[in-house]
Amino acid sequence: MSSVISKATLGRLPTYLEFLKRQEVEYISSTQIARALEWGEVMVRKDMNAVCGQGKPKVGYLRENLMTSILDTLGVDKNISAIMVGAGKLGTALMEYKGFSEYGVDIKAAFDNNPEKWNERFANGKRIYPIELLKEYCKENDIRIGIIAVPQSQAQIVCDEMIDCDIKAIWNLSAVTLDIPEGILVKNENLALSLSFLKTCMMRNEERNDF
After folding, report:
1. What is the structure's pLDDT at 2?
2. CA separation for the pair 128, 138 (Å, rounded)
3. 6, 126, 164, 196 - which has most CB atoms within 10 Å?
4. pLDDT tens, position by position, 155-171
């Protein structure tokens, strides 16, 4: 098993994990995983080797052990606290989503510049605070991850404030390329681009079926 796992491999691990949860077999091979996910067999084999080492010849991996190795690599047993800036419809949906806790991330609170939203609570009881309290809250609650769910015009401002709060990792949902200093991790999520990619794949599949 490799001690250094690439960011690309880490990014694929949640997909492997969700796939493995749905299987009802004792053993599974990298070839079976690759075919089911329609990914390259060589890539999947390298990912599995990096996380769990080599499987048994002609048998593959014990599914439960492979899932445990992926969970350990993702660090789900080490809880990290996060905050959300932007309490609109997208921010609200994410704040109330229960799945993040399965991967060791707790989005503890949201922040917004709209006074009408201050002190409101989401369905799970978590609160919305004024953006002015962000730095104090992050310091008191050891916040490590920031999530940007604001309009594009405000994204860089929010990003700078998060960095000033000593946040080291940012999940950017604003579809804007942020100016980030070295040492800050950023995952950009362009929802419109992802949907467009899905549409293109669907259209290509339909074209192939026409022949």
Report:
1. 47
2. 14
3. 126
4. 999 999 999 999 999 99
